[in-house]
Write a structure and sequence with these properties.
By secondary structure, this protein is of the alpha+beta class. It is built from 16 helices and 15 strands. The N terminus is likely disordered.
């Protein structure tokens, strides 16, 4: 995507950097073979802890900005008597994380409202019908649209004032279970759900069955313990201790866990009693139970950018242009990649890794993961790093900025930027492939301007995506996107004398013969035979004896 600059000209392009490795890992496996008693116990424990989590979240939201460590300790003591000390710690930590997430969401909402108000005010100040530019929108097309936007400005200003008041007071609005699922209760027919099915999904989303890990404890977690053999046991809360089927108030599930992905890493952590957090949840639609294990990774030392650039890299363009946006019914999204050497020259042919964004969320995620897997395997074969754009469209999808350009707004909103970035960083770190993030300003525009035509031949049609991949790779390597320009026509010849790289007329030896190289030659004339380059008599030059041969034509007489 082309970068957006101010009225003064092009914006400053940011420096490239190596993307740091992820700080945590999460793996999931299905709890197979659960008995009816196991499911009953899990639902009872989850409902009881979920009610405690709801009350604790209500108390945290009521405290607002006045919350301190004393209030945290008081809440934890109250929850300890109703569950256990470790369950209370997990509950309060989850409450703080949820409150902080809502706080960040409110800040993002305020930024979007400010951007909308600023854009509407600018467009209202312009005359009707005034054309805009690529960097800034113009005036509204009609008086009717101007009046409608003036009314919308007042609505956005009221919303902005209310949001700023909530921010100053520390108020957040949180729904345990999700606001979308809550609103679905009033639209069951459109969602094709019955009240019983909706109630089951609502209760499952509000259950609380997650525990933080503890290093040094047995298998890294005392609350939800999973051994190396896959046996899962849960520490029951105090009111439900009578449901225990083993000693010390614990309940052992019938199902066993065997993580297919990162299983060896997980077993190493569990065997060393290192902290592992667990979460158990029910998928009502599939009628399945899952267990998710997560742990933090130690900070890894980032590879220097100079070392990444030493052997070249692969430039990747993940944007979708407007012609491809017309194919959104099929969901096709191109990902172009081109290998570059350390000097910024394209090597070989470009590669395409397309994926579809149709179907369910799991299907879309699988398509993205499959495309990234093929890309990473290609980079692994050549031992190269990958250069991608540091895209962020959080403030670029508003209708106030792009007006009636609905296709462009849908294009930007449909690009899975966050999903691609998270997946690519995690998968590349697993394979040890460095990632270089570059500024996305003008990569598509300048790539098409300087590289699309030169890289197009009779047997290869270079697209705009391929040229953008070359531009991204050159920027990551520290080279300018523009190709080296040819010198002027007079400088391509000897119009002003010899070039500086040629020998001057006074240079000794500039007209000497070439040195003879002994040995066999590939030409048909054997060595020592034929015309010698050093024999100037064999050359057709003025003043040489070769011009006086019998074959030389006599000059015509001027008169009889």
């Amino acid at each position: 995507m082309s970068g957006l600059g101010g009225a003064g000209g092009l914006r400053v392009v940011g420096a490239s950097f190596v993307v740091p490795c992820p700080s945590g890992v999460a793996v999931r496996d299905r709890l197979k073979g659960l008995t009816a008693q196991d499911e009953t116990v899990l639902r009872l424990v989850g409902d009881h802890l979920g009610s405690l989590a709801s009350g604790d979240l209500k108390a945290r939201c009521a405290a607002g900005l006045e919350h301190d460590n004393e209030a945290w300790a008081s809440r934890k003591r109250e929850l300890t008597g109703l569950s256990s000390s470790r369950w209370a710690g997990s509950l309060t930590k989850a409450t703080h994380d949820q409150w902080a997430l809502a706080r960040r969401g409110l800040a993002a909402h305020i930024r979007r409202l400010e951007a909308g108000v600023r854009m509407i005010r600018h467009r209202l100040s312009l005359p009707l019908g005034e054309k805009g530019s690529k960097r800034l929108a113009g005036g509204y097309r009609s008086r009717r649209e101007w009046h409608a936007k003036a009314r919308r400005l007042r609505v956005l200003e009221d919303r902005l004032a209310a949001a700023r008041a909530d921010w100053a007071a520390g108020r957040v609005r949180v729904v345990r279970g999700g606001k979308r699922l809550l609103n679905t209760r009033h639209h069951l027919e459109q969602a094709r759900l019955t009240e019983e099915r909706w109630r089951a999904r609502w209760e499952a989303s509000r259950r609380f069955l997650q525990a933080d890990g503890e290093s040094g404890k047995r298998y890294g977690n005392e609350t939800i313990r999973v051994g190396p053999d896959g046996q899962v046991s849960i520490k029951l809360p105090a009111p439900l201790a009578h449901l225990a089927n083993t000693a010390h108030g614990r309940y052992v599930l019938t199902a066993r866990i065997a993580f297919a992905h990162r299983g060896e890493t997980w077993r190493d952590r569990v065997g060393a009693n290192r902290a592992v957090a667990y979460r158990i949840h029910e998928d009502v639609q599939r009628n399945r139970w899952y267990l998710t294990a997560s742990w933090t990774l130690p900070p890894a030392q980032t590879v220097p950018l100079t070392a990444v650039r030493a052997g070249g890299l692969i430039g990747v363009d993940t944007n979708a242009d407007l012609p491809h946006a017309r194919l959104r019914s099929r969901g096709g999204t191109p990902t172009a990649a081109w290998r570059l050497d350390q000097h910024g020259n394209p090597v070989g042919a470009p590669r395409r890794f397309d994926y579809t964004l149709s179907g369910t969320a799991d299907h879309r995620d699988a398509q993205v993961r499959h495309a990234l897997t093929r890309l990473l395997h290609w980079a692994t074969r050549h031992g190269l790093a990958i250069a991608v754009e540091d895209l962020d469209f959080t403030a670029e999808t508003t209708r106030e900025k792009h007006g009636r350009r609905k296709k462009f707004r849908q294009l930007i909103s449909g690009m899975p930027v966050a999903r691609l970035r998270a997946r690519l960083v995690s998968m590349a770190a697993e394979l040890g492939i460095p990632l270089v993030a570059v500024d996305p300003a003008y990569t598509s525009k300048w790539g098409a301007q300087h590289w699309q035509k030169p890289l197009t031949s009779t047997t290869r049609k270079t697209t705009r995506h391929d040229a953008a991949a070359v531009a991204i790779g050159r920027r990551a390597l520290g080279h300018p996107i523009r190709r080296r320009t040819a010198p002027p026509r007079t400088h391509q010849s000897d119009g002003y004398g010899h070039r500086t790289v040629q020998a001057r007329p006074e240079t000794p030896g500039r007209e000497e013969t070439r040195p003879r190289i002994p040995g066999p030659r590939t030409r048909s004339v054997p060595p020592g035979r034929g015309a010698n380059a050093g024999n100037q008599n064999t050359q057709h030059r003025p003043g040489r004896s070769a011009e006086q041969g019998f074959w030389q034509q006599d000059s015509l007489p001027l008169s009889l």
